[in-house]
Amino acid sequence: FFFFQAEDGIRDFCLSRGLGDVYKRQVEESLKMFEGMRRGLYEEGQVSLRLKIDPAHNNPTLRDPVIYRIRYVPHPHAGDKWCIYPLYDFTHCICDSLENITHSLSLIHI
Q: CA-CA-CA-CA torsion for 50, 54, 59, 64, nearest 10 degrees?
């Protein structure tokens, strides 16, 4: 779902475990918002794309994490074609899967 709130409000939303109206948004409306996000109709930090998981989960990390954000910086390969970027926690597992990596350790886990 798309979330319109400043970055400091994201943490408050997750900690409150609230559902709000964002959970009632139709898929078609979300797709239109994603297209607007991709075309650069929003400012950095104004909107983010969140993964709908479980807002009541005991672990705050698993309460609807942000997976895409807007950044108006040129990409090394795509240039200015895209202004939306996936966050590391979202892309890391996808890249590992595509590369057939089944286990990985981060320095923080060692």
A: 0
